[in-house]
Please model this.
Amino acid sequence: MVFTRTCFRAFTFSVALMASGLAHAEDVRTIKIAFSVDVLDDTQNAATQAMHKRVDELNASRKDVKIEFDVYDAQGSVDKQISDVQTALIKQPNVLIFSAVDSVGSLPAMQAAKDAGVPILDRRPTSPVSDLTTVAFYSSDENRYSKATTEWIKGYLKAHPDSVLKIGAIYGAPAQTAQLLRIDAIKALAAEMPDRIQFVAEGYGNWLTATAQNLSQDWLLAYPDINYIATANDIMALGVSNTLISAGRKDILVSGYDLTPDGVQRVKDGTQSLTIGTSIADNGKTIDVALGIVDGSFKDKTYYLDPVYAVDAGNVDDFLAGKIK
Amino acid sequence: MTNLTGSAEHGGIAALRRVLLLNKAVLFALILAVVLSVASPYFLLQQNIVALLEQIVVMTIVALGYTLVLATGEIDLSVGGMIALIGFVIAKLMTTYGVPVPVAIIAGMALGAACGALNATMVSRFGLPSFIVTLATGALFTGILYILSNLVPVSNLPPGFLAISRTKIGPIPLPVILLVPVVIGFYVVATKTVFGQHVIALGGNPEAVRVAGINITRLRLKVFMIAGACYAVAAVLLTARSASAQIGAGSNLLLIVITAVVIGGTPLLGGKANMIGTLFGCLILGMISNGMNLLGVNANYQIAVQGLLILFALVLDIESTKLLLRLDKRSMLRRRQAGAL
Amino acid sequence: MTTAPLVELENISKAFGGVQAVDNVSLTVSPGEVIGLLGHNGAGKSTLIRILSGAHTADSGRILVGGTEATITSPKDAKAIGIETIYQTLALADNLDAVSNLFLGRERRRFGIFNDRRTMVRETTEICAQINPRFTNLQTPVRNLSGGQRQTIAIARAVYFNARVLIMDEPTAALGPGETAMVKDLIQQLKSKGVGIILISHDIEDVFDLADRMVVMAGGRVVGRLNTHEATREQVLSLIIMGAETKPNPAAARP
Ligand SMILES: Nc1ncnc2c1ncn2[C@@H]1O[C@H](COP(=O)(O)OP(=O)(O)OP(=O)(O)O)[C@@H](O)[C@H]1O
Ligand SMILES: [Mg+2]
Model:
């Protein structure tokens, strides 16, 4: 159903574009953007919709270009993704937006684009970034997430001059090192202001609600003075929030990441204090970067999606309203 | 089942030694409890005991069903996928389709039994090892979950459902109370019923069971269906406790549960079903994690310590089994000598 | 024999993959008759009797019980007819004790689902006392028992359930001389009660002692049928070893 809707949209756009193309054949440049997506699950679908929306806007506002945007859904299959890209290349796109099914398995698809001289905007860059990638597009950036976190904490401490944060920190899985930064940034801040921020406990929640729930339940007993439990994502923040609800505690801060709909909802309900992340709706910027690659105005090798939101009780209503708009 | 009188003749100490060796999980749990209550002032707090029990309920219910599976000499790697799928289906039925809570729970249990039946049928019908079958069905269940859910968790569950984990009787949460009859039930099934006897025999020698005229296909079907229903109950409790059906729910259970069951004295190769041992195995794992959280053991050390303790328990299992065999032989020898006199 | 046969096997064949383990074999057992089934390793003796006991199903042929055709597709069917088997492998669950093994699949129950352990212990004690009075470790896992004790359990199981036809595949293989004598005595007792017995043994003397008739198999076929009182040891040995008599007797060697 999702797929058909996408196709239908693409179809209407192209019809509209063709119509306008006939009228201004001389002075309008056609830019073809192909998007090979690993699988159109909920998240990717929302991101794709945001890109479609941006294409709409640009086609309406800019008279000098008309953008053709084709989406190929690999449905989770490396094989299909390779064929998808082959098909896409026949239409000679100006740029390929690529989200790999598998970082290794999908390499032939990228190689094919490179061989055809089509620049690649990589929405799922590997580490280190592949040589085949023209621009690495990051929809989340640990450094910016960390900065947003420490900024929020600084703001909180300024607003509560008497409070000293006693933090229990729940990491994700030990093997995934990038996310460790989320908590480690708070630690660094604690080292800067030891009188205001103290770490009392740390543990791994393995990205699981139930594990974070058990961990925070134990901490409430062992560390009665704990007043802030920082978790590495909203799924684990849910576990902490469950613990606090059943313990009847409302005096403890809980933070998570990713701006999940559930997480934002909990911020609105007051059972979670903070969630940090980028908004899926902002993924329309992929199109701007792609255009920048085509016309040479975007020269960097990397792009980090902006802005990073820190949604708390103070701005959750605005955030929700902004999203609705 | 095992004769105690033989050793009792040689004094109470021998008998006690035997009982403790047979139930080394109980012994190990006791030692751990003593150590933890000395090490942490919080451990024995009523609040902590209650929290500990609450934390092991889901694991224990899965482990009890799992004990039957292991006892027959089979293994079930689909437990994680099944729990997440069932949790999601139950949650979806209640939220999107407005199905009443009890009906959704029963549907979940039926789904669990059906998934178990699929596992058993693949094993029996095609003579495939359960290891392979459940590896595949586990991936199937996870895949179906991903397709149905688009990886989006289900929240906003009805209050009547959340009450399952939030209701307390006195200080004790409802799931902990529910655990008592379940443990007793499984203990009775394993030790007192003909079915339990057949399950254990199957793990000992499938050929003997077959030529004894027992329908192995049906027996295996029952075992996997009971296990599936157990996973479903666990999925209900996990979903209620998490206040949402998470996509990754239960993915950590497989390893924990196998460890708990084996520590509890049910061998990986089957032929025994020690339900009380399983309960204590779960208690041990719960205490290890709870204790280290209370003691503030560094998170990275926790992982290592957990591994070490599990290794220790497994070695203890092997060694005590050998010791037990030696004691058996010795008492038999003594009896033979006594008979000869 | 004057009495009607208890069991008749007619033209039974069974192959495992390319191996024709049993090839068109016929055999009858009458009440009170002991048939000695002889043959080299791999001759097909066990396979033949496993078909009668329901552990295998035949590829072709039929089984008559009391003159009417019987369908034996599982061990349960055979037991229901009164065919009890002592398997060469003994078919014991090593992790269970003598009591549980004796009653495996035919447990005494209480309230339909519970083991009536007490009754089963009592009955096991009684029957084992008859067969082997020195065997008293009835509640130890059988993996800890001696070969003779394990064999006692398998024999006790067959005897306890009042077999009409008793199949014994190497029943004395693991027994000492005293216990062997006891088993031979038991066979005589059962014979006098009218039980039909198929006895497989490599010990030709035992067979000469006990059997009324002998059937010799080689390569899945019957190569000789003899009445014990007419047969000589040389005759039988040569049938077993060479699949034929030194002095050919075509009538007997007919498959
Ligand atoms: N389950 C089986 N699968 C495949 N082949 C088998 C099986 N059982 C028996 N056979 C084969 O069938 C043939 C007959 O075997 P069987 O066990 O009936 O011989 P036997 O006369 O009982 O020998 P023994 O005196 O050694 O017990 C042998 O070649 C054996 O390898
Ligand atoms: Mg044999």
About this structure: The first helix of chain B runs from residue 5 to 8.
